[in-house]
Structures are given as structure tokens and as C-alpha cells.
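#lab-general

N.A. 3:47 PM
ok so I finally got the sequence cleaned up, no stray characters, all 401 residues accounted for. can someone with queue access submit it? mine expired

B.Y. 3:52 PM
send it over

N.A. 3:53 PM
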Amino acid sequence: MRPFDRQRILLGVTGGIASYKAAWLARLLTQAGAEVDVVLTRSACEFIGAITFEALTGRPVYTALIAPGHALDHIALARAAQLVVVAPATADFLARAAGGHADDLLSACLLATSAPTLLVPAMNDRMWAHPQVRRNTDSARGIGYHVLEPDNGALAVGEGSGPGRMPEPETILAYCARLLETSTVLKGRSIVVTAGPTREPIDPVRFLSNRSSGKMGVAIAAAAWRRGADVTLIAGPLEVEIPPGLHVVTVETTSQMRDAVARALPGADVLIMAAAPADFTAAAPATAKIKKAAAAHALALVPTDDILASTRAARPASCVTVGFALETGDARSEAGRKLVDKGLDFIVANDALEAGAGFGVDTNRVTIRHADGREEHLPLQRKLQVADEILDRVEVLLHGR
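B.Y. 4:20 PM
back already:
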């Protein structure tokens, strides 16, 4: 899985209760296609065993700086790594990393590597707030280490809740991907992505909507952030977890999404309209719940505003604009019409009725139709892969603007 395939990652684990999460992180990295070398500190071995990581990665685990036949492990591991991750990083390890110590295998590896290094602190909230820990963290950043701030959440038993909790392995995985990503075209670019359905009220408890889960739009936003972009995700109600790093604007109705897109467009380099906003709204929504006995035989509907068309004037002249066309019939001709009417650079079309390519699934089969008339028919693949296919084409267009 991009960008982990055949990448060598050194995962350092220090001695904290959060070390149990490191086992799952090792599993996620391995499943993503990376080769994971695990280095356990002496105190980490008190919390979790080397055999656990061997079973999860299929690779040997390293624990000693000085051992017969392993005198240069710190050099070999450091040179082989494309990324070093220390999760959890205790207060003690932050101090040693900031001070340039090399009294164990893991700290020696940090001094011997030129790879990006991600430190993931985890400790009691009072320790995390201590001025010395904050100074050590700032010093580590000053050296060039990347530091992922702890989460605010439940701590060890009896310690309540607060900042200091190690982020979930899925979050750490996302940050690892961003550090490994080699494409730089989107780095620092402003990208606006919409996702999910909208809901148009019929009365205070009922609404008009559709079956969109938001998976495609969220996949695009996550892939753009991984490539270094500053991403604004404008989302209706979603059935998927929102990944880290995104600026999220939550909306309910089509008009709210339209207004949010218009506000986000000034300065945007890319707009990708992957949402499925409702096309109709009730002409006169009821102010109280409609009772069955009093319900009318028909519901009067009026069209909602077309978001891409109505915000066209707000787009910067250089903005790359991508639309989606989800159809149940002739997707090709409908996509061609939308491409012209909405002033798009290209449009992504798919069939809502095709198995494995409609709403609520993790895969998609799409056709990309470009403004110059070219069509590309992509195979059925994971939506994360479709997202990268779309962004690859966005990057080509950005080169000329």
C-alpha cells in the first residue's frame, strides 16, 4: 500500500504502559507492506515481550546495544531505515533523545540515522505538562525530529483523563505515511474536498437524503493530506471515521455545503467535489412532526442549488476543479454534460448499481473524463487507490498552473 510498499521502518518501543499499542502499530505497518525492525528498550521488555513483535512482523527483534555478533546493529538498522518511529516515547527517552545520548540501542540508532524520525510521547498528564518535558520536546523538534502530540484521554488506572495518552495506532500510521510520501507537488497546496450526503428537512425529525457514506471523499482528503497538502474537508453526515490532519467543516444541508465551499474557495489550488448533496428539498418544511393521519398524499419538492455551478465565479482562475457523476444509466453522456456545464478539468463517473462500486463499499470502478475529451477506464480497486489515481491527475494539471 502506498507509500509503505518495500519501505524499511525502524519501530522503537520504550517502557510505558502504552507499549501494548505499539504491537498493533507494528501489525498495521506490516500489513501496509513495510518491513518493520523493532527495537525494544530494556524497560519496554518489562511491559511487552520480543516474541510478540516477532510474530507480528515476521522479523527478529533487537534489544541490546552490545552483544556478541551484533556490535554494529545500531549502524545497520539506522542506515537501512527509511523512517524511524518511537512509540511510545517516555519522558526519559525524550530527555535522552534531546540530549543526544547513545547509552542503549534505540538512542544510538537515532544518532546514526538520516531518516525522518517520528517521536510519539505517552505519559501521565502531569509529566507531559512539566516544564522540563516541554523543553526536551522543543529541543527534539529543534534537532529535526517530528513530534506527534499526545491525545487527551483516559490515562492509567486511577489517573483519570488528560493530555498524555498515546494516539491510536491508526493515527500514527497516517503520520508515518505522510513522512514517507515522496510526491511533493501537493505539499503546501490548499485543497478543498467535499464528502458525504446532505440532509434536507421535511419536518424536525425527517429528511431527504441518499445512501452516500462519504468514503470516497474522505479517502481523497486523506490521500491529499498524506501528500503534504493543507486539506479542508467539507462533510455532510458521514459513516466513516475522519482521519487526522484535516480541517473539517461539518454541514447538514446542501445550502450549507454550498456556502462552506464558497467560503473555502479563495486561495484554493484544488476543489474536488466528491460529496453527494441532495438534489431536492421540501418546498415548505413542516415546523412540527407530520402525523400519519394528517399527512398529505404528495410532498412538494424544489431543486437545491448546484454547488459546483453556483460557486463557479468564486474559484480562483488557476484552481483545478474535479467533479463526480454517480449515475444509474448512461453515466458517459451525463458526465460529459456536467464536465462542460460546471467548468471542470475532469470528472469521475461511476455506476451506482455496479456491485462493489456503489455506496457504502470500500472499492470503486470509475471512468475519468477529461476536458479535452480523453476517457480513462480504471479497474475495480480500493477507494484509497482511486483517490491516488485522481490526485496523480490533479498533480499533472497543477504543473501547468
